[in-house]
Amino acid sequence: MSITVKDVEHVANLARLELAEAEKERLAVELNAILKYAEKLNELDTEGVEPTSHVLPLYNVMREDEVRESLPLDKVMANAPEEEDGHIKVPAVLD
Q1: Most CB contacts within 10 A, which of 9, 26, 64, 83?
Q2: CATH superfamily, domain at 5-43
Q3: Mean pLDDT value of segment 51-78
Q4: Are the CB atoms for 4 and 28 separated by under 8 Å?
């Protein structure tokens, strides 16, 4: 597989990037070098190797969801930068 300048232009268009002609040429050369290096993986003998997505086994390490008491309001408000009528006051994000 080979990457052409037209392919680089197509991807740049999808990403809404404006590239100069020199950049397009350079990126095509660099992407082709990356693909050539990745082709070396085809030389490896993978017979009998199980397909994996991770090197180590993964498992969920989250705690059980248990009902417990909330913090008292005064302790929560002690951490708030500003308070107004029992609520944490934050800067407006909409006009």
Answers
A1: 9
A2: Glu-tRNAGln amidotransferase C subunit, N-terminal domain (1.10.20.60)
A3: 87
A4: yes
